[in-house]
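Final report, results section. Input specification for complex C-07:
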Amino acid sequence: MYYRMIRNDLLRNKLISITMMLFITAMTTLVSLVAILTINLIGSIDTLTKQAEVPDFLQMHNGDIDTERLQSFAAAHENVKDFQVLDFLNITGAKIQLGENSLMDNIQDNGFSTQSPKFDYLLDLDGQPIQPTEGELYVPIGYMKEGIAQIGDEAKIAGKAFQIVGFLRDAQMNSPLASSKRFLVHEKDYQELVSEGTLEYLIEFQLKALSKTNEFETAYADAGLEANGPTLTSGLFKIINGLSDGIMIAMILLVGFLIVIIAFMCIRFTLLTKIEEDYREIGTMKAIGLPLTDIKKIYVAKYALLALVGCLIGLLLSFTFSGPLLENIRLYMGESDYASWSILLAIFGSMVVFLLVIGYIHFLLRRFRKISAASAIRTGSPEEKNARKNYFFLSKNRVLPTNVFIGIKDVLSRKKLYATMLIVLLLSCFIMVVPWNTYQTVSSPTFTKYLGFGDMDLMVSMYQSDEHVDNEQQVVNYLNESESIEQFVQITSKSFKAKKEDGSEEKIVIELGDHNAFPIEYHAGKAPEQPNEIALSSMNATEFEKQVGDTIEIISDNGTETFVVSGIYSNILNGGKTAKAISSDESAPTMRLNYYIKLNDTSQIAGTAKEMSEALPFVKVTDADNHKQQVFGATIASIKTAANVSLIVALFITGLVSLLFMKLLVAKDRPAIAMLKAIGFTNQDLSKQYTTRGMFILIIGVAGGSILANTFGESIAGMVMASFGIEALTFVSHPIIYLGFPVLMLLVTLLATKIGTSQAGKIAIAENIKE
Amino acid sequence: MKKVINAQHIHKTFAAEKEKVMVLKGVSTTIYKGEFVSVMGPSGSGKSTLLYTLSGMDTIDSGEITFNDQSLTVCGETELSDIRRQQMGFVFQQPTFLKNLAIIDNIVLPALRDNRKKGKELANKAKQLLERTGIGDLAYRMTNQVSGGQLQRAGICRALINEPKMIFADEPTGALNSKSAEEIMKNFLQINQEGTTILLVTHDAKVAAQSERVLFMKDGQIVDELHLGKLSNPFLENRTEKVTRKMLKVEM
Ligand SMILES: Nc1ncnc2c1ncn2[C@@H]1O[C@H](COP(=O)(O)OP(=O)(O)OP(=O)(O)O)[C@@H](O)[C@H]1O
Ligand SMILES: [Mg+2]
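Structure output:
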């Protein structure tokens, strides 16, 4: 009997049942997707790190190297497990031809190397260290993704012919966010190439105690060893590898979370409406002494069925979707060791969703107990109380058309009822706006200020070398004489040590120069202006436990000097640990010279960059915009994907919920509709009334959603970004987001209202009026 | 005399569960201007159905209905709505109102739709109607703050706001106690005296006895009719007795 009742009920309310199921499906899909993606991302990163045996500490070095001194340092230091120096033969992109494509415009430092003997292996796509034979070339996986290289293509490196036989995974430099890329060749080919490039060194250590990495870093700096280049640690490799996919997962998580809220609200709304409809029946059953558990069973069984089907479909969908979404992770990092775990977790997540739904329904059905048999039979379901003071009288209204007035009045006097739809529209708007604003922000030119460098057009940089002084003069002269340059500023990176709170000393790289010329974003405080002021990157601020206004002791050859922390900024490049000050200390060794340049005419960036690299062959010229594009392109693209998905999801939810809501509303209002028709209101009148309700809620929802997105949403996006080292994010928006999206929602709501209330016209007056 | 309603051979079937039920089996009747006609008959005989088809709220399968010489069977939904709003008034057994509007707003509702600018005028008119039906002081109450009888009188006021040519009432006193029912009937009689035609369905012989003509229905047909004439000399006992006797005869 139960089976028949449930089946009849499901069939009678087809649309509502399907909608409920869709929500449960969406909820399960997202929960399970997040589980699968997260586990696989973490798993793949771990697997790759393990297979490649990534160094725990890496110092890049450009210039002369004393391997013996390094060797003895490694042997003497208790924390060193293993040590090696790898060659990285940097060859300019113009000399690299892969098939049809030249890497001329590529901003990466492209380098060639041979397979490492001990650790830090370059892996093939099966996770095995590659041993190339002569004439074979293995290309970084990123170039396959970008479609620059293909297996079987002929490659020409500095005139020497190679055959591209495969792609390699590089646990250090895989990500587009890493600034260098390694190609792999045979030892013999390598020797032939050496004369064509500049040799850089990767000084690599594996440590016994990872927790003491910072101490090791300081010890290394203290020893005054080779340090002409960025210093990186294994934790950072993981972050860099996970960033793009991590942001995508974070966004799915956000959307998923909101969908869960929306789904539960819809379950609540549908169930309460249904109970209201059945109010009298429930009262009667109670009155004639039938146990309520029986009725409860029917309700629970019905939703359990919907939830079960929804969860199963959702689980299957998540498996289907996870394929393409995992593609990037699989390609760059390979299969995860935890793949089977992720499936288990996804199933577990779906089960949790299922149990939550059932639990929630039990919770909602508590109100059965409160139904008094007597009052249910006599008066039917309790309406919202209307005894409140009435301020708006239709007969006194001169402004609004009658139908509009009735619509608005209805919303205002049944606030509790409409709250569900309002909140859903509000959240939909939120889901739409936040990812798009994030995308706009990240893709806007001003975003670089969060990354630790200002809104510049070009950056010229050079590492310290013996001809340093001559070269420096040459650059300054060139920049001073160039017609096309509006402004430039010289920033010198020097290495110091600083005292931590516990008294120990640690290495700190300070960028010295005028930091107001190309301002960056300080999420606390401001740029250093006085000679005794210093700004710290957020990673350094955490490292040294400093806040704005604190003092920090900087140790140089001239002794100890006390600086006041003037500001804290975000920086995720160059290892993330930097500092800025204006004083120039001549004694400390210069690591790197940067010139930030603004041009008169931004359309000339590419041309000027080319001229400059020809005139100053020893410098590296970076086109800031292009640089950002190549470094963050993949991340920005994945944010855009997430934003588009969110947009579609939000519109879908808007439509679905409006439809569901209007349908339930019409069912509920049936007697009133019949009455209005009886006294001569036309179907168009009714349509106008319902449209007004929909629009009225939509307007409030969109306004509220936009405000929420710009306050709370900004904080959430900021928090996500902060976990990647970008702090104090402020949204940069686009008019389309606040004008176009509401119009889209409006259209969807209108359409849903039209469809949802189409039944109102068909309500037979006679049947619904005569008792 | 001018015909307000002229119905010829109307048939109406409902599709219940599996088979079709014929509820009106060729009903013909004419109602003249200024008449007060009531309909009686056993439960399920088709009284309500007749009322709703005559007013154009429900469709018929065959036959012909004219209202003020206008054929309702050829009218579209919107035209029917216009006719109902402008020329007809309805009083239901359970007074149905928009719960979130005050009583006065519910009364002006059908009129305001066409004359939005005349809110003040209409409100005054509604107040007059409320005074006349004896609930003038309840104008600004919400519908759940008054009694059933008071609400039914508000329903009559709403039916009158557009000065309809005819009023349809389906058991308007059915849910009321005898005191309230009496007052409602007084209202109807007064309206009728002022020239409005009334068609009223009732189970109560005392109510039917106050009208000038009673139609008796049985199994979807009008089987008998009783002419009582205007209620000028109040031999009410006698009239009620006549109606009761006829009713018993019909039901046999
Ligand atoms: N929507 C419907 N579907 C099927 N049958 C219906 C429908 N409405 C009414 N009927 C049937 O039509 C017949 C006449 O109904 P109607 O409501 O006109 O009777 P009535 O004379 O007004 O009865 P009462 O005095 O109880 O109000 C009844 O047998 C009823 O079962
Ligand atoms: Mg009836």
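The mean pLDDT of chain B is 87. Chain B touches chain A through 47 residues (CB under 8 Å). This concludes the modelling results for the funded period.
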